[in-house]
Design brief:
Blueprint: H1 2-13, E1 32-34, H2 47-55, E2 60-64, H3 71-94, E3 99-109, E4 115-129, E5 134-139, E6 146-147, H4 149-159, H5 165-168, H6 179-192, H7 216-220, E7 228-231, E8 235-238, H8 247-254, H9 290-300, H10 315-328, H11 340-352, H12 369-381, H13 383-391, H14 393-423, H15 433-439, H16 458-475, H17 496-524, H18 533-553
Antiparallel strand pairs: 1-8, 2-5, 3-4, 3-7, 3-8, 4-5, 4-6
Helix pairs in contact: 1-8, 9-10, 10-11
Amino acid sequence: MKDILKNYRRRLLNLGSSNRALVLLRLYRELHLDVEALDFVNGKPAFEIIDKLLSGKKKITLSPYADSRHAPVAAVSRRLRFIKRKAEMVFEERGSKELYLGWPFVHGKFSDGTAVRSPLLFFPVRLQVNAAQEWELQPDEAQPPQFNQSFLLAYAHYMGTPVAEELLELDLSTLPQQPLEFRTKLYELLKEQQLSINVGREFFTDKLIRFTDYKKADYEAELKPGQLHLEQEAVLGIFPQAASYLLSDYDALLEQEDLLEMEQLFGTSDASINLAVQAQHTFTAFAMDASQEVALQAVKQGQSVVVQGPPGTGKSQLICNLVSDFTARGKKVLVVSQKRAALDVVYRRLSQQGLGSFAALVHDINADRKAVFTQLREQIDQLDEYRKQNLALNSIYTDREFLEVGRGINKNLEKLENFKSALFDTSRSGWSPKELYLSSSLQRPHITLASAYKSLPSHALVEFLPRLRQYIQQAIPWQKEEFVWQERRSMKDYTWQERQELEQVIQALPDEHAVLLQNMSDLSGYAFTLAELPKYKAALEKVKQLQALLAQEG
């Protein structure tokens, strides 16, 4: 179990070269823009963009959207269009905002030799084209500027040091806004948290350097393990960060010594499982089929389930029914999804059934906070109205009718459950009635066993069938008319004493047979054998005639 968790943690952290928040050796056209490329494109040095970000400016002009007189504008504008389109697509698909300006960059190798080239700081931003047809950068106020989470966690992992928790939670907007004072404070924070990163004099100059593309081998050639330093590079682009926040959860699971099986993560105490779910305690706002009801009842009984199926098979509808059922019973339900569209579908369906007021749709914890608070205030203002609706006569009548229908459903379910139990009951013969019905046919040869079937359960049949076949093979000759013992007597009712007497008679037969043969030989003057029997039978008629003649003369 520990190995599984460590493997998942490693995948989540993604400390390999594929994590662009840790190792960015080259810029990708659709994802990144070297901020130094904006140097004097708009008539001002590129570092001024950093200056305005630190000072809290709301709008920062980057470059004209189009300018045929200045060649660099076209290349810059094309890249900005790609980045803006990618950021919007990520937001639509996952609901996460991943557009940042990263500055400065950490270069070097961790103590184990793992190379790193990553932004130290991330400034969340938005791209747009203003009314003057200029590319404009705006700080994203929905999330604060922060340290690169992936770098801090990777530093702790590879350097064998505790995670700098204070830096993980630090809001960079609380630091001084003047660029030189900001960098001085940043330097002091790195020393306080014992992050071994060399900060040279170039870091304190107001000039960005060009971001140079490297091949992996060329970049690592002159680096030494355990040596890190800062470079005045800045990149605007897509840097996924969400996965890093789950690492602490995996660390907490790894510290649990008694965690041995995956099922323990989803375990529910037996006391909390309701084994008899009554119909009047099920509140579903949407229609459902049998498979959906099975999944819903399993969840209500405390089980963890995975529901799979192609689009249109009712997965979202099942989620909506779970939400309506649990909320109707006073529970709180959290629905999470990696896809923004999936949450929108669930929320839209709930709203269609009048449950939208009781559900809060959150795609961004900061951007949607105001809407959620407004919705909560409206709910509080409606409390008196809800009480009146609950005490109205039609509500009371509806509750009673619902209760009666629920009890009727329970009775039918109990009857059907009894039928089901009987249909699959194997206690009598080892086979269920369903299996016997499906595997039997009155058109095939059969015999009536009456009550004898109780002596032939399924487990005894394996031994009984070979014995039956052997008996039949031996019994067939006995049933033929020419069989010598055709008129034999049955000995099944013989007592023990009678059996003993019969055995004595059988044992005496050879002696009696010998005496009989001797007498016949003495009377006839010839040796008598079984082979001579046909001759004696043929002469029997003549013998009888001789006996009659002799009787007449005498």
